[in-house]
Design a protein that fits this description.
- By secondary structure, the protein is of the alpha+beta class.
- The protein has a domain of 53 residues.
- It is 11% helix and 24% strand.
- The strands form two sheets. The protein has a four-stranded antiparallel sheet with strand order 1-2-5-6. It has a two-stranded antiparallel sheet with strand order 3-4.
- 19% of the residues are buried.
- About 5% of the residues have low confidence.
- Bound molecules: zinc ion.
- The site of zinc ion (ZN) has 6 residues, from loops.
- The site of zinc ion has 6 residues, from loops.
């Protein structure tokens, strides 16, 4: 059964509240070419954070980072790790 591909750009239309409560990320997290969402992580499974290579444990609020046009390539980042990454890219404050 085919997976539903949502449009990468969901900025104007909030996704229907299904299983994954997604929040609008704070402004400091925004990076051109990426869509950032906050998640509570409550129902999640553990994910590997690309920033520190540690697990983002279930129940940890964190960020979901999706490169525009790469819906399948979403990454789960610890919030502080994303902040560090932005700094590394020279985008942070
Ligand atoms: Zn991390």
């Amino acid at each position: 059964m085919p997976r539903k591909h949502r449009a990468a750009r969901e900025r104007s239309a909030p996704p229907p509240s299904t299983q994954r409560p997604l929040g609008v990320a704070p402004e400091w997290t925004i990076l051109d070419g990426f869509t950032i969402r906050t998640v509570s992580g409550e129902k999640g499974k553990p994910y590997r954070c690309p920033g520190c290579q540690q697990l983002v444990r279930a129940g940890t609020p964190h960020l979901v980072v999706v490169a525009d046009g790469d819906v399948e390539g979403r990454r789960h980042w610890h919030t502080p790790c994303w902040r560090t990454e932005l700094r590394r890219l020279g985008r942070g404050t």
